[in-house]
Amino acid sequence: MTLEQLRIFVAVAEREHVTRAAAALNLTQSAVSAAIAALEGRYELRFFHRVGRRIELTEAGRILLGEAREVLARAAAAEQAMRDLAGLARGSLALAASQTITNYWLPERLFRFRELYPGIALRLELGNTATVARLVREGTVDLGLVEGEIDEPVLAQQVVQGDRLVLVVGAGHRWAGRASVGPGELAQSRWVLRETGSGTRSAFESALLAMGVAPESLELALELPSNESVRAAVRAGAGATVISALAVEEELRAGTLAIVGLPLPERPFRLLHHRERRPDRAMRALIAALATAGGG
């Protein structure tokens, strides 16, 4: 039993006439008759009574008509769903992103994407760089955005616009008001840092090594799991930190935190997806939107 046979059957049943059904379907009368005969022959059932020049549905025909209408409706719905997916009129994407990206960089860009494709539902999970990479690797999410470098061959990486790290201290810190500090002075302060595995922590430690400073030579006062907790601790005088410039814009304007010059590299953000899971059209559209988005 094929969809085409069911379409022909429904057309004949609704019109109770082979010739009119053939005309409506743009088929020959013989093709319509052959399709009905094939259905009846397959199941050894009669779906129509031939009464003079008319035809009437049998009991089997009435049962088949109801089922055929449901099958054709479901097939039409499936076809429309595929058209919608191909045209980005519907669909869903699961993302994961690290904290700085989620809180400061991503919201505006996701809003712009939803303005373009309102039928695409977006789900976002939060985690540090290591967690995001794991979620993408396991297939829990379609796409990841991270700040740190990832050494996982199974994950494809695309560099997009990022941010810069800055050294900041509270108003009462010994470095407050200084234009800059040298690498040799870094061990003179206590430090408040993000947890191991975060992109910010990894980028700072890489920068320290490039300056010839061993990360373990710094006195770690607090290790905290979020930018918000790091900012609060530094404002309270717990020590210095290196953090995304995006994360401290308000505090810098208010004067509760101050930047102290230190040669820190700009860091790109990275889009991650699994190499063995081919991106669908919605995912490709989101990747393109994030890779080309400006501002922020």
Core attributes:
alpha/beta, 10 helices, 11 strands, 24% strand, rod-shaped
Radius of gyration: 32 Å
Largest sheet: 7 strands, mixed
Strand residues, percent: 15-25%
Mass-distribution shape: rod-shaped
Query: Can you give the helix content as a percent range?
Result: 40-55%
Low-confidence stretches: none
Q: Using DSSP, what is the number of strands?
A: 11
Task: Report how far the terminal alpha carbons are from each other.
Answer: 57 Å
Please count the helical segments: 10
Question: Concise description?
Answer:
This protein has about 300 residues and is of the alpha/beta class.
Question: Could you walk me through the main structural features you see in this protein, from its secondary elements to its overall organization?
Answer:
45% of the residues lie in helices and 24% in strands. The protein has 296 residues and is α/β, with parallel strands linked by helices. The strands form three sheets. Strands 3, 4, 5, 6, 9, 10 and 11 form a seven-stranded mixed β-sheet that branches. A two-stranded antiparallel ribbon has the order 1-2. The protein is rod-shaped. The two termini are 57 Å apart. The model has no long low-confidence stretch (mean pLDDT 90).
